[in-house]
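Next up, sample data.

:::
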Amino acid sequence: MTFQLFGKLVRLLMKEKMQYRGDFLLSAVAQMISYGGDYIVIYLFIKRFDTLAGWNWPEIALLYSIGLLTYALGASFSFVQMSQLEGQVRQGTFDTLLIKPVNPYLYLISRGFNLAYIAHITISGSVLVWAMFQLNLHWTWTPYFYLLIAIISGSMIHAGVMTMIGAMSFIWVRSSYLFSLFFQLKNFISYPLPVFGTVVQLLLTVVVPLAFVNFYPTAYLLDNDTALLPPWAMWLVPLAGPIIYGLGYRFWMFGANKYQGAGG
């Protein structure tokens, strides 16, 4: 599949979704209200204790916004597609992807592109900019460039992990419970990593490296405590995304090549 065809499939899907604009707008507003409530809950929590592990409200708002923004960018090309893969494998409808003369993975993610994540991007992007102004950051071009590549890398981490979960459908068929586990772990990165014990810090750094999504890059940019890793290791953040996404893609293609029909 060429990138031109990939883009065309995404554009066709967007046109299809916009046929029901009222439903799309109501869904977007509902999502913004939901995540707006999350911001308020975190704000009230921080207001009660003033700081959390030495992080104040604008710093945690920046941390949470990067996490939400990267999730939205990564999930728009992976969550719906991978969460529905279990049903396609179980019912045998995944077979129809394999007879198309295109890369099945690229076709799947392009046809399942979720435009609704624009709500997540809007609210997280707005709060991210607000937090940066509140922190009165006087950055050179280097931190801004680092923030950009960190967002790209974090999006790839989210997409890579969800791709790996989706690929488990080829092995175990039922893998939806892994998404529940993923979202439980994702809740931890809404807060600074030093809040949690060493076991959780190691889990989110080594086993499921979600801390590279937002904690490590934000701590580096704000010159805060980076917990388990030294400051120089923050330049590993841009590498984490491509590596994890690459592993996720290879694992998915391996599973697809081993797929033998309905049920696994």
